[in-house]
Amino acid sequence: MEELTWTFAQDFVVTFQSTSTELSTRLESLRSSGSVTPDDLQKASQDVSKLSKELTDATGRLPSYDQRQCVLQLQTLERKVNDLQLSTNKPKFSFKRKAVQGAPTPMADTETQNVHKQPTSDKASSVPVPAPSDVMSIQSLSHRYLDTGFWSPSENRSELSISSIENCIVNLLPRADQELSLSAVHVAQLSDSILLLPQIKGSMLLHNIKNCVIVASCHQFRMHDSFAVDVYLNISSNPIIETSNNIRFSPYPDTLRDLLPHSNLQLLAPNSQHLAVRDFSHIRATPSPHWRALPEELRVTDWSNAVRDVGQVDSVLARLLPDKAS
Length: 326
Description:
acetylation; Pectate Lyase C-like; 2 domains; alpha/beta; 27% strand; Tubulin-bd_cofactor_C_dom; Methane Monooxygenase Hydroxylase, Chain G, domain 1; tubulin binding; TBCC_N_sf
């Protein structure tokens, strides 16, 4: 059942984003034309309403991160229809919103300004948005070393969102006195960086990863639009890549396995499927040219400078990151 839900979620998000993009393009074209008919507005309103209903029907079957992204896209479409409506002074096609009741959740105090909870939206939608307090966000960092020091033991975050990181080492392996439990991790716009993650009980979704090293243990793994990435992975299902190239897979490093708390060790898959990769951009019987096994002689064996802050992030990255041209 869990695998069916995962497949549904992935298919739904791809279809939703495609439809959303088409609608957005059409609305922009109407706005630029300067000539919008009542029929144009009615058709756009109906299509956005249909998309809203589809998202509502999918509620509960989507990871909360994906649902939030779909909600944001839907809100943008609704705003564009409203703008068109205002420009033609025909209010019968406008969308109406209700204000969110209650005050927004305040941002948590952390040691790092760019590590925080997701803020609550000031607009309500017809589609319920998962509670933002469940998500830890790390974003907009450059030339930094970050570890789990910012993660308060009292915080119970089930999901992690990482975005807009470059030339960083992000070491989220739990210390011996920490219990980090994540159900999902979402990574986007990561470049020239090393990412070490704790055990992920559910899915890991990656978008636009360039020249990076990823170390993770998860149940489901999917990568989009990425290039030159070395993935050290423990996984119980087939990893999936799409529109990606020069991706190299390797087993989870033994030296890092030894650093994991016992609770994390118990969750590692005994028979990892890290080389059973499915490439959705190469639906053929022949081997995919977009990924390969990372040769043993090219694997990182000394992780000591990546798991502690030695004050030389750039030099560590220069030694451990993959060769972009390899």
